[in-house]
Write a structure and sequence with these properties.
Elements: E1 4-9, H1 16-24, E2 30-34, H2 36-39, E3 53-56, E4 59-62, H3 64-74, H4 82-106, H5 111-140, H6 154-167, H7 178-189, H8 191-199
Parallel strand pairs: 1-2
Antiparallel strand pairs: 1-3, 3-4
Helix pairs in contact: 1-3, 1-6, 4-5, 4-6
Length: 203
């Protein structure tokens, strides 16, 4: 049986989707979290000196998207067949593009530019990407609450965590997207996920 060690900073960060995947699949893993000052003495032991990192049976896998893709397949959260796998990836890619837009304004050093980028992101970019996700989901779902097919996939978990991040600045972003609201609520209804969410840190 494989052993899994997830290395992250002591926050939800980019590794949170991996945590949700482990929990949804009821897969044991070691959740190793470093404070920033501890990281200095550990980063040379990681590929590219980056976190998050997943260690599987001694093999170190960096980058959150690579970790997610690996776990989705290993934990059977990537769809029931090749077509569902492709549609899961389609939604995941759309959400990844959305988060790139989010990071672009947060990393802007010029205050005026950052405020303008933020305004454009919430007024124009979020609605555009959410509309695209809803269009894809309505095409790929099987008349149920999940984004793809009849079962929970990492597309649902990815979408859930992305919206949780965006809710911190605007809790109304899903108000015009009934299906996406239902999907968000369905993730929270998953027994193991729901129990984890009750106890996890808000940071």
């Amino acid at each position: 049986m494989s052993t899994y060690k997830l290395y992250t900073f002591n926050s939800r960060s980019r590794a949170e989707i991996a945590r949700l995947m482990f929990i949804a699949a009821d897969q044991k893993f070691e959740d190793i979290r470093y404070e920033c000052k501890e990281w200095v003495s550990h980063k040379n032991g990681t590929p590219f000196k980056l976190m998050p990192m997943l260690e599987v049976d001694g093999v170190k896998l960096p980058r959150s998207v690579s970790i997610g893709s690996f776990l989705a397949k290993r934990l059977q959260l990537d769809g029931k067949d090749n077509l569902e796998h492709a549609t899961v990836e389609d939604i995941r890619n759309t959400l990844t593009d959305l988060m790139k837009q989010f990071l672009s304004f947060r990393q802007e050093k010029d205050l005026k530019k950052r405020l303008n980028l933020k305004k454009n992101f919430y007024i124009n970019e979020i609605p555009r990407y959410l509309q695209n996700v809803e269009i894809l989901a309505k095409q790929y779902t099987n008349n149920g609450p999940f984004l793809v097919g009849k079962n929970l996939t990492w597309a649902d978990l990815f979408f859930y965590e992305v919206t949780e991040i965006l809710f911190k600045s605007d809790g109304t972003i899903l108000d015009n997207y009934l299906f996406l609201q239902q999907n968000h609520a369905e993730v929270e209804k998953q027994p193991r996920i729901g129990e984890y969410l009750k106890n996890r840190s808000k940071s």
